[in-house]
Amino acid sequence: MITREQLRMARAAVNWSVRDLAEKAGVAANTVSRFENGSDAYGATLAKFKRVLERAGVIFLDGNGEGPGVRLRKKG
Q1: What total of structural domains would you count in the chain?
Q2: pLDDT tens across 27-54, in order?
Q3: In terms of C-beta distances under 8 Å and separation of at least 24 residues, what long-range contacts does 21-28 make, across chains too?
Q4: Global pTM?
Q5: Using CA atoms, how far apart are residues 20 and 4, in angstroms rounded to an integer?
Q6: Which residues contact residue 30 at a Cβ distance below 8 angstroms, ignoring those fewer than 6 apart?
Q7: Within 1-76, where are the H helices?
Q8: Which of 8, 9, 29, 68 makes an SS bond possible with 22, Cβ 3.0 to 4.6 Å?
Q9: Do the Cβ atoms of 59 and 71 come closer than 8 Å?
Q10: What is the domain-level CATH number for residue 24?
């Protein structure tokens, strides 16, 4: 599943606010903020976040020993 750090990085990569992500994922903005600030979130909610961010071009990276991260898919 994705980490809170990956979620923040992914939002920044696609230039989305907390509200943007919440709207696209169909959750409350507080849900996004709470997760990013250290609270737990349901697996289904994290899956929604991941799905909408992947549709926007985010690729989630496991980290290969250097920690998880994100990158954007090449356009074109």
Answers
A1: 1
A2: 999 999 999 999 999 999 999 999 999 9
A3: 21/49, 21/52, 21/53, 24/52, 25/49, 25/51, 25/52
A4: 0.91
A5: 16
A6: none
A7: 4-13, 18-25, 29-36, 43-55
A8: 29
A9: yes
A10: 1.10.260.40
Structural domain boundaries, residue 11: 4-72
d(CA 56, CA 28): 19
pLDDT, tens digit (0-9, with 9 covering 90-100), for 56-69? 999 999 877 788 99
pLDDT of residue 62: 87
The tokens for 70 are: 């994100």
Say how many residues make up the chain.
76
Q: Is the pLDDT of residue 76 over 70?
A: no
Task: Report residue 44 as tokens.
Answer: 């289904």
Q: Three-state SS across 27-43?
A: CCHHHHHHHHCCCCCCH
